[in-house]
Amino acid sequence: MRGYGDSDKPQELENYALDYLVEDVPSLIRKLGYEKATVIGHDWGGVITWQFAAKYPEMCEKAIVLNAPHPSVHFKYLTGSIKQFLASWYMFYFLIPYLPEIVMRSNDFAMLAATLRGRKAGVKNRNNLTKEDLDVFKYSIATWEARVASHNYIRANFTYAATIPRGKITVPMLLLWGTEDLFLTKQIAEVSVSKAEKCKLVFIEGASHWIQQDKPEEVNQHIKTFLSS
Fold first, then answer.
1. Are 46 and 65 in contact (CB under 8 A)?
2. Among 14, 33, 88, 108, which residue's Cβ finds the most Cβ atoms within 10 Å?
3. Tens digit of pLDDT for each residue in 55-75?
């Protein structure tokens, strides 16, 4: 995904609007020489997966989303549900210019550590996301440009309204959801399912937002079963 890891990190805000982000997926599929693909995404990658399945059903064989709501559902519940509003407090914080980038770097990336390995928000199984793994995440956002890019995902999508295709998604979908997600309520998972004609929702008990780290065997088994069906 743009803005993460070794991918390009354009600094202009509009580059992270959902309407731009989703276009990276068909571009990548074509670049790799394929006409269609099964797409799997978590968090913002999951939001993009929802949008890709809706906008490019002819290029999407199947879609698998991990702890990410349909974009229209998320923004509806962000303003219409007190519980989801409070869970999403960090989004409003990241709208502040410059300060989040400075704070994120302070105290050896303490905010990142709390998000990934903290007792409330972090993984429930710390053996699956070690301190060494955390160092990799720290390295990935060590530069100012990387931190701006990661925060621009939120800033851009509060600024630019996405064009959400009308009608239900026709692509077969699997939605996996950790029940202990501190940032997203189970309710928006249940409502998101209604946005697709064929979407199976599976709650992974005891898993945090970082579902693939907490319950990798269970997550992988559900994915394998879905892909073979």
1. yes
2. 88
3. 999 999 999 999 999 999 998
